[in-house]
Amino acid sequence: MISKKSFLIFSVSGSLFMTALLHADVTSGAPVIVDVGNSTDPYVSYLVIDDTSLGNSAVEYAWYYYDTNELGTTNPLTGDDLINAVVAGTSNTPYSLTPITEGAQGVDAGVDGFKIGNQTSTIVSIFDSSATAYWAYWIKGGSQTASYPPYTYVTPTNWVIAEDTPFDRLLTNGSYDGWTLSTLDANYNYDGPAPLSSASLIPEPSTLPIILLSLATLLVAIRWKPIRKSSTI
Questions:
Q1: What is the pLDDT of residues 176-215, one digit of tens each?
Q2: DSSP states of 151-212 as a string?
Q3: Where are the domains of the chain?
Q4: C-alpha angle 176/112/142, rounded to 5°?
Q5: Do 81 and 177 contact (CB within 8 A), yes or no?
Q6: Mapped to the 3 state alphabet, what secondary structure does 95-141 carry?
Q7: Which residue from 137, 164, 199, 214 puts its CA 20 to 30 A from 227's CA?
Q8: How does pLDDT run across 113-131, given as a tens digit for each residue?
Q9: Average pLDDT over residues 83-98
């Protein structure tokens, strides 16, 4: 992910030359929901990885937690806490999450891609000036204050591109963090679609099949009703 702060640096160092073709497509299938933690805990926040390079369904991690502060502190939970919890909670599972990053600072140093289970997404370095798309960080719910002037503060109710890295992002119950591979416009702003924006919904069960199933069950029950035998003493 390239933050707006990084764009300021890039604009000083030179222009981006868009020569390498990268696809930037969100998925159209129903998302795969992966529960992380104890689902009886009172709070949940979501981490969505949405790109067709990982298949036609986004992976939506639902992290359940019992306190809105970091363990043993009064520090509110951050986007880093969400990613770290998902990485730890999915280890050695079919949906184990491994962010592919630029340095020891993890996702805050820049995201180049993701590995989920045995599948690896499109990989693109945030410093690749020939790329046509980069991994974009989105947020919905919660809040974020940028760490650079003018220190923009947002509390988005819909998906927006994050103002900064997950370190500066605060979670709330029901908040979403998301990552997509996105193209850039002429001003170096992400212009790709938001996570889950093309995802299909899981179909609701139709009323007619339920009625037919109920009738069939009733007929079977009548047919199998035991015949009462009379007996004489």
A1: 999 999 999 999 999 999 999 999 875 434 333 333 333 3
A2: --EE--SS-EE-SS-GGGEE--TT-EEEEEEEEB-TTS-B-SPPTTTTPPPPPPPPHHHHHH
A3: 4-201
A4: 15
A5: no
A6: CCEEEEECCCCHHHHCEEEEEECCEECCCCCCCCCCECEEEEEEEEC
A7: 214
A8: 999 999 999 999 999 999 9
A9: 98
